[in-house]
């Protein structure tokens, strides 16, 4: 497509581009309609003008859907560890994200601790141990197939006793419709809160950008069980766009706080709405 | 976004028609739009959905559903049949080499379920037909990927060949195959690292491994929750490697799994197995008719 012809066709293509980015049919239609009005209103004609209008409008849609939530990380107010719990379905990038974030905060001078509370998946503890080694941060692990709740408890205790600034808790991947595993997760969160009433400061739901409409259901059910505070959108270095977070923000008001851009320790960035929105429709240009 | 299943949607659309006496072509198109929407909500790729609807329209007109007594039931049947047919009719078993070993190579995006699937398939072959598989740990990139495979191998009493993370995966595969020859293993599984289909360096590595190992089966492992991008990914891997089959994982979730249709359409390769959980026994052969009903929410 080209922007010379900003006509009906153009908006059909925009709609399709948004659907192809996993924004979802309803959301794509809504956005396309709003943009059509906006472009007419601002009388945008040149490619550059239309592009700017679209970015502004889409960022606006994103912000409005959030009702003013911020996408910054929240820390403990008093001298006690901040606890960040990472949750999500299988294979989305929870453990890797912790590996990246631990390095990010360590470089800011924070004293960081990891808790390997995925005691279920083969090699999960070893994976986080390897990240702890790379990041040169401390880690609490369980013995064999111990209860994940016990690892969480030990982690929180060590974080308090050892004057750590941040504790990251890695959890096993679980599908949101698995009620037993969702209850187990709730229990892990309660163990944290029992030890430190204002913790966890963040419950981050990790979403894989390649996921389609099911991500909305993931967000719903994880939010129900663990009061998710924000999203991490991983694997944006691939060809998938992660457009479903627009629908998630619209319905659940969950802001994206971080994006994953690869497998290396530095492949993590704070979410940037402009860049994300540009990525959604850059194929149209 | 109301979650309606397709049956009720089609019935609603058809009901509005029947009030108007004779059902027109425009009414049919209204129904087809509902079907297209349901496919998109199930994550069927936009282009795949479009092709599907086009074929469906021709079939529906050809079958003269507009003149029949119960157009909605007829349309539902045609949709279901067409979907089942497109998905490949019946289950296709694993390829088997005439002389041992049969080599099975995994490929796919990060976190799709390759390593878990290797354990599941090897376990199935071992327990159902007394096979003696060897698993080659050729993922030297993901932290503790080798450890993961070794733990699974240990649980199943299936040997795992590894050379740590210092050697090149090509060399590891070569040495692993030599070991399989020596030990007369009848199946060899090559667990490869997850990668993006646009990662040229890592895709070249897979092509090289393919040349070294001459696999009888190259299984693309795909997460059933994948969205619109499934097409691009599947095409990328298929173009580079000529995959022989697909494994669809994480079907124990509540996703509709429309990616299955898109992958099948762009690669033409059969979906052979589905993953239905994290345990090594959570594997089933693929049933096209079940998948069709699932995508349609029926
Ligand atoms: N390309 C890319 N790969 C990623 C990214 N984040 C994670 N990965 C890869 O995705 C795969 C899964 O990552 P993990 O961190 O193990 O995911 P997880 O959510 O902890 O998985 P489970 O614990 O098994 O549920 C690994 O191969 C990671 O290297 C990313 O941003 N981009
Ligand atoms: N619920 C469910 N989880 C699965 C299934 N198959 C795999 N998993 C989980 O998905 C996650 C990723 O599986 P892996 O086998 O490590 O995936 P992979 O493709 O080898 O990942 P990389 O090597 O990092 O690319 C793990 O948590 C597995 O337990 C399945 O069918 N259902
Ligand atoms: K995935
Ligand atoms: Mg993990
Ligand atoms: Mg693996």
Describe this structure in words.
The complex is a heterodimer of chains A (285) and B (298). With 285 residues, chain A is of the alpha/beta class. Chain A has helices at residues 8-20, 25-42, 47-66, 94-106, 124-135, 148-161, 179-195, 214-226, 244-252, 273-281, and strands spanning 82-87, 112-117, 138-140, 166-171, 202-208, 230-234, 256-260, 268-270. Chain A has 10 helices and 8 strands. An 8-stranded mixed sheet of chain A has the order 3-2-4-1-5-6-7-8, with helices on both faces. In chain A, strand 2, helix 5 (124-135) and strand 3 form a beta-alpha-beta unit. The longest helix of chain A is centred in the first third of the chain and has 20 residues, at 47-66. The radius of gyration of chain A is 20 Å and the shape is elongated. Chain B is elongated, with a radius of gyration of 22 Å. Chain B has an 8-stranded mixed sheet with strand order 3-2-4-1-5-6-7-8, sandwiched between helices. Chain B is of the alpha/beta class. In chain B, strand 2, helix 6 and strand 3 (160-161) form a beta-alpha-beta unit. Chain B has helices at 6-18, 25-41, 46-62, 71-86, 114-129, 145-156, 169-183, 200-213, 230-241, 259-267, 288-296; strands spanning 102-107, 133-138, 160-161, 187-192, 217-223, 245-249, 271-275, 283-285. The chains are: A alpha/beta (285), B alpha/beta (298). The interface between A and B is large, with 47 and 47 residues. The structure holds guanosine-5'-triphosphate (2 copies), potassium ion and magnesium ion (2 copies).
């Amino acid at each position: 497509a080209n922007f010379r012809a900003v006509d009906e066709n153009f908006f059909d293509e925009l709609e399709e581009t948004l659907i192809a980015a996993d924004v979802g049919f309803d959301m794509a239609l809504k956005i396309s309609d709003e943009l059509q009005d906006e472009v007419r209103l601002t009388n945008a004609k040149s490619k550059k003008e239309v592009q700017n209008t679209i970015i502004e409008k889409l960022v606006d849609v994103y912000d409005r859907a959030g009702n003013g939530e911020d996408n910054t990380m929240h820390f403990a107010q008093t001298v006690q560890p901040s606890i960040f719990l990472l949750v999500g379905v299988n294979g989305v990038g929870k453990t890797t994200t912790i590996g990246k974030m631990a390095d990010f905060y360590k470089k800011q001078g924070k004293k960081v601790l990891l808790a390997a509370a995925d005691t279920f998946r083969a090699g999960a503890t070893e994976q986080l141990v390897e990240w702890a080694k790379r990041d040169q941060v401390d880690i609490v692990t369980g013995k064999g197939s111990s209860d994940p709740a016990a690892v969480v408890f030990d982690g929180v205790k060590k974080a308090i006793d050892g004057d750590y600034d941040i504790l990251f808790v890695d959890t096993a991947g679980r599908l949101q419709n698995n009620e037993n595993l969702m209850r187990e997760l709730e229990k892990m969160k309660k163990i944290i809160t029992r030890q430190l009433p204002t913790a966890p400061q963040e419950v981050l739901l990790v979403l894989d950008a390649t996921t389609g409409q099911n991500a909305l259901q993931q967000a719903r059910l994880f939010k129900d069980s663990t009061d998710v505070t924000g999203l991490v959108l991983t694997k944006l270095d691939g060809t998938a766009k992660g457009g479903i977070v627009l629908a998630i923000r619209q319905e659940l008001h969950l802001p994206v706080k971080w994006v994953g851009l690869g497998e290396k320790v530095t492949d993590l960035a704070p979410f940037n709405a402009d860049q994300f929105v540009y990525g959604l429709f850059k194929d149209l240009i | 976004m109301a979650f309606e299943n397709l049956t009720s949607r089609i019935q609603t659309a058809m009901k509005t028609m029947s009030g108007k006496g004779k059902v027109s072509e425009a009414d049919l198109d209204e129904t087809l739009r509902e079907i297209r929407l349901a496919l998109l909500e199930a994550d069927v790729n936009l282009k795949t959905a479009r092709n599907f609807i086009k074929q469906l329209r021709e079939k529906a007109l050809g079958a003269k559903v507009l003149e029949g007594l119960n157009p909605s039931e007829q349309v539902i049947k045609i949709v279901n049949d067409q979907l089942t047919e497109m998905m490949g009719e019946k289950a296709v078993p694993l390829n088997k080499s005439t002389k041992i070993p049969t080599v099975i190579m995994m490929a796919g995006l990060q976190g799709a379920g390759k390593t878990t699937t290797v354990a599941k398939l090897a376990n199935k072959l071992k327990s159902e037909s007394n096979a003696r598989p060897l698993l080659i740990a050729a993922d030297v990139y993901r932290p503790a990927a080798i450890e993961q495979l070794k733990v699974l191998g240990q649980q199943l009493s299936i040997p795992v060949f590894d050379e740590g993370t210092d050697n090149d995966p090509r060399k590891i595969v070569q040495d692993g195959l030599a070991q399989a020859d020596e030990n007369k293993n009848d199946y060899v599984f090559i667990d490869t690292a997850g990668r993006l289909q646009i990662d040229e360096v890592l895709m070249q590595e897979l092509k090289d491994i393919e040349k070294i190992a001459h696999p009888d089966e190259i299984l693309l492992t795909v997460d059933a929750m994948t969205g619109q991008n499934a097409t691009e990914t599947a095409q990328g891997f298929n173009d580079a490697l000529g995959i022989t089959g697909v494994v669809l994982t994480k079907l124990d979730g509540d996703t509709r799994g429309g990616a299955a249709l898109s992958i099948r359409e762009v690669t033409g390769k059969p979906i052979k197995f589905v993953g239905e959980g994290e345990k090594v026994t959570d594997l089933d052969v693929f049933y096209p008719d079940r998948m069709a009903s699932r995508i349609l929410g029926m």
